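Support case: user asked for a sample of complex input and structure output to validate their parser. Sending the pair below.
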Amino acid sequence: MSTRQGGAREEILGRIRRAVEGAPEVEIPRGYRTTTDVADLVELFAERVRDYRAIVHVLPAAGVPAKVAELVAGRSMIVPDGLPAEWAAPAPGVDPRSADGVLTGCAVAIAETGTIVLDTGPGQGTREQTLVPDYHLCVVRADQVVGGVPEAVARLDPARPLTWISGPSATSDIELNRVEGVHGPRTLEVIIST
Amino acid sequence: MSATFLGMPGDFPTNAARAVKDSQLRYNLRKATHTIRGKRAAVVDELPDWHELRAAGKAVKDETLRHLDRYLLQLEEAVTAAGGHVHWARDAAEANRIVADLVKATGETEVVKVKSMATQEIGLNEALAAEGITAYETDLAELIVQLGDDFPSHILVPAIHRNRAEIREIFLDKMGDAPPGLTDEPAALAEAARLHLRERFLRSKVAVSGANFMIAETGTLVVLESEGNGRMCLTLPETLISVVGIEKLLPTWRDLEVFLQLLPRSSTGERMNPYTSTWTGSAEGQDFHLVLLDNGRTDVLADEVGRQALRCIRCSACLNVCPVYERTGGHAYGSVYPGPIGAILTPQLRGMSSELDASLPYASSLCGACYEVCPVAIDIPEVLVDLRAKAPHGAAERAGMRVAGWILNDQARLARAQHAAIRLRRLVPKRLPGPLSAWTDTRDLPEIPDESFRDWWEREG
């Protein structure tokens, strides 16, 4: 239910209607690219993610379980429900405040910008689980990689809470020097399964 | 910080004259603005369709503003349907009242904040403090500003006027748990802030944010950030209160495909910012409140020339290319919106009754660089000129302009005036006397040539 305290809503709407009365209608030109012509999506995605100083491995699907096992060895990891069973056994109950890291899949990945999108769907955990631990290991399947931002927006469901991740946590607030690792995971490691 | 940020006292020329004497400030600003300018240019050049994206961004915003009433109602309905609560605030006092009451209803006396221009504009932190509620800024730059008892000086990098040595001093002085051996390495400073804020994030029950975009069609809010402090505040607390200007709307989910390309590249010069969060209503069980803020925006909307300022997506590209901002810094503008966009937005939002606000339309050389880089094509010089005409002018200036108009409107009169000026040119002082000195205090008088162009043309032509 909305709060309509003291008629603020009606007053603001009235001011808007008076302000734009007689203003011309606007056509929106959509001449920009809605598909991205990229020869090798995986190669471009890997290169762009590396640009953010994330660690990237490109592997055939058969090699993923062994690589995951190698990378999570010795760490207490959150493994949410819904990941392919061969990657790792689920461990969803681990407290994110004490876990060393989290292993997830993703909803979509964007080659041109090197972005991974999580939508809290199967194998992606909650927003808290992918934020609080210091290490995020993300497995991206090649068929989840799209060319550009428009293709990703079209694939995503706005009803789900989304987190778009482009590299590890970073700040540029001190003399505009990029420093990785402020509040989010300081290490982002990505396995691209081909 | 004071509830209404008026920066330094006085008008822009006075503030600017003081700022340009600060060589440390000029050095910090020059280094920072030139770094980010270069990064922006490189990632914008990468996109073959930048001009098309810019044209679409401009039109989407204009279309939104044209039907803002309809889109706000659509947004309200969608947010409410998704379990959120929508509140409307005519001005700063009303918005602050709503937020304070919402916080009190939770029984909490502390809130964590995501960097937000809207809450700075309304002086929310000070209003909450008056109600016994402490607001903690969690963005690194905002933390530097808050700990230093300072004012933000840039939209994106509020502590841009501080260098690493100054930041180290602030942390050692004001941050109780700063490590004693803290160096001025950016990584060490960021680590100190991480440790300082970690526990606060994990125990806070209420967060306050703004939003970069709201989607009318779906009721979705969007926040772009880098550090993860935004994600912490947006997801961990039980209650989330977002205070958002009514102009931050986009009609459809699809429109994000334009703005998620325009904003990061224009703002930080990155292909994409590290983190973008979107949520619709009460996500993952959180109690969500949206406060829609007018606070002068409908007045701006009513101005046919000036309303284009409401397209602004707060990227700050105009600040980084502005030769005036580069030399004066953000404080001289006396508003949370500094630089070229501030020079047109602030006097429209606040009116031009104060000396400072009336001087802001003059805080520009009209070089046009701000228009060139603006991702939503706001013609800032056009609005500046329009506001100059509307700004109050002194009696001497009005008289001077009337005389100039009288002379320039008649060829014979102009020729006689030029001949008189040439004869008397040795008598012209470097500075004009009396009220006219306001003109020469900030400008050098041009040298008067020994022959007018018209006479030269007559003789040679």
